[in-house]
Amino acid sequence: MIVETLTSPVILFFVLGIFAALIKSDLAIPEAFAKAMSIYLMAAIGLKGGIEVSASGFTPDLATAALAGLALSFLLPFFAFALLTRFGGLGQIDAGAVAAHYGSVSVVTFVTAKEILTGQGLSPAGYMVAVLALMETPAIISGLLLARRGQLNSNTESSGNGLLHEVFANGSVVLLVGSFVIGLIAGKDGFEPVKPLFETGFRGVLCLFLLDMGLVAARRLTQSKKLNARLVALALIIPVTNGALGVTIGTLIGLDVASAAALGILAASASYIAVPAAMRMALPEADPGIYLSMSLGITFPFNIIIGITLFSQLASMIG
Amino acid sequence: MVETVTRKRIEILVDTPLVPRLIKHAREVDISGWSLIHVDAGGGHDGAWQHDDVTEAAAKTIILIIASEAKAAALVDALAPLLDSYGLLLTVGDIQVVRGDRF
Which molecular function term from Gene Ontology is one that the record holds (chain B) (predicted)? Predict the structure, then answer.
């Protein structure tokens, strides 16, 4: 399974992006094209999830997975915060901001994992897309509570409607949830006319998108001056422990192997779209050089190249 | 020859998510006009960075404002406490403008 994953075009394109950035190649994906690909991928994954749920209906598994996802997103930052302050040596505000990233999720990691798992005959349930959307935001609240010693609104300059708007109207959340609902309403028959666009080209677009993400992640890492050995270690330790916890909880609540693996991958992933913007608004004094470098520069590539295989293997072992 | 008057040109390099906050401060000192300039890449004390539209995690914007000396001073006073925490790069310079009554 490991060799199969590492030699899949999706992962190889990601590695190519990293390689190109490391050798300082002038390879670049046009910004507008990269943005269009991310919109396409999120719409496709949302639609497919909604269609699957429209076929299967709202099952008890969906409810328990949603509750598990919400709980993980809210609670994982507390564990990360303890490690970041005690072992990582970060101050309360930086640790709170970083911890929020590790409770929230990475859509791209999930999309890649779903594609790889499906290719291996382990297709996660469609409702995991809804779980993904639910896990985006609770961690932001936990991170703010941790950074501000239990008070969400201690700094009027940094809170209020702007933050709420950023959290709930974030483009990726709106698109993902909206596409999911469209899939739910349209169902399999309604999807047929648009299926060629959203299914035929999906894997190829994902390859090109991950090429760009490899470039972005490696450039973020090489340009960072804020990481030390302890923070690098934590950017690897936190996803491994979070992911193992996610797989274990997924298995204990009775999810199938693929969905338990997906829950583990969601728990292991770190946000680099919704949370950085929210943290920049809510905790402007927190250093973006730390939380972006950890989540995007280290944890994201780790999860894409190793984490997905690791958590699917773990789910297969204990499932 | 067209008559010109001296005004202040204020440029603020800021992380894009914080732009609405700074615009709010500008409005509070009665500055009603501004332009936002997309920034591709840069470097500084904390290393280099590049804008990417996918994550927008490292997006930065330049806010360009032209204002009277009094309004510019009021804005600088309002932003001074935020320079470090927001990581702002704030510059103010004299410029000549036509139609000075607009600023």
Answer: enzyme regulator activity
Selected residue of B52, B56, B86, B88 to mutate for chain A interface (largest A Cβ count, 10 A): B52
Can you give the residue range of the structural domain that contains B54? 5-102
Name the residue among A157, A212, A292 with its Cβ closest to that of B58.
A292
Q: Is the pLDDT of residue A314 over 90?
A: yes
Predicted interface score ipTM higher than 0.85: no
A292-305 residues labelled b (16+ CB within 10 A) or e (exposed): bbbbbbbbbbbbbb
Domain boundaries, chain A: 2-19+32-318
* Number of domains chain B contains: 1
φ, ψ dihedrals at A41, nearest 5°: -65, -40
Alpha-carbon A164 to chain mean position: 20
In 10 A of CB A100, how many CB atoms? 37
Q: What is the pLDDT, as a whole number, of residue A112?
A: 93
Tens of pLDDT, residue by residue over A248-282, are: 999 999 999 999 999 999 999 998 877 888 888 88
Asked if B26 reaches chain A (Cβ–Cβ under 8 Å), the answer is no
Determine the residue of chain A that is closest to B86 in CA distance. A284
Nearest to B55 among A166, A216, A285 (CB): A216
The per-residue pLDDT for range A56-72, each reduced to its tens digit, is 888 888 999 999 999 99
Interface contact A75, partner B, CB < 8 A: no
Q: Say which residue the tokens 């779209």 belong to.
A: A273
Q: For domain A2-19+32-318, give the CATH number.
A: 1.20.1530.20
